[in-house]
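Subject: Sanity check before I submit

Could someone independently write out the structure tokens for this chain? I want to compare against mine line by line before I put it in a report. The sequence has 308 residues.
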Amino acid sequence: MLIVNKPAGITSHDVVERVRKILKIRRVGHTGTLDPMATGVLVLCIGRATKLTQFLQSDTKEYIAEMRLGIRTDTQDSTGKILSEVPCSITPGKMEKIFEEFRGDVWQVPPMTSAVKMGGRPLYKLASRGREVKRPRRRVKIFELELLKIDGDDHPRVKFRVKCSKGAYIRTLCADIGEALGCGAYMSGLTRISCGNFHLDSALAVEKVEKLAEENRLHKAIIPMNKALERYPFVLVKGDFKEKILNGVPLRAGMIENQSQFIERNQFIRLIDVQKDLFAIAKATTTFSDRVQIDPARVIAKPVRVFS
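---
Independent answer below. Compare away.
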């Protein structure tokens, strides 16, 4: 894994392409797109770590965002065409009351500029052809919403911090807050400050990645797969059984040397070898603990991803 601080003005795919050229490797992907105007944490998976994408895409994300009140645009951000413009006055107290309505579970309609697919086509491709289609609303979660600053008079700029679930669109959050205020709003700035356990203070500029690669020091910035998935419990597998699991054999109770914690049914778990290297991700088929006696032959987890 490699954590990059994406600059404004380029796409997330542009960053992936640059890192592919720097590392001279095709197998590079990211775990969640940032808009071209946005900056901040972009988590890249390199080589066999691209198999981890599905386990990282659901990570909670945190942003510092800015919205401008009183102006609506067709893209819900500063890159779009202005649809309406009215003066808007706001106080911190009134803003806080509106924020309270948007904490917890909220419904959003994905913007036409998003990568959500309708009929097999990404919405942004339909939008580029001037088409707009009806999109079903989706429920997302806003865990935290904190007002940081309000600047300006007729069209105030409101800076805030938001922590949200996968699938939440901050531009849509801004537009919906504007509608709740009755004046409209668009997103005027966005920085992702964390994605799961990855934070902006450890993210590297693309130029820094290039320099480290030239100096053969990039290994200092690479995050091993096992560390990237630390939030999942681990099971240490006895050496004799690693090869069998790599070939698709399910994990049985008798194959375990020890485990990090109590594991519940349907939970993803890391399977590591005696060298403490991650070699598979499995899904528990039952609840188990190393403190509870289980029939050694009983299947307790099945591999969903293996790393030979």
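---
OP: Matches mine. For the report I'm noting this point. The mean pLDDT is 90.
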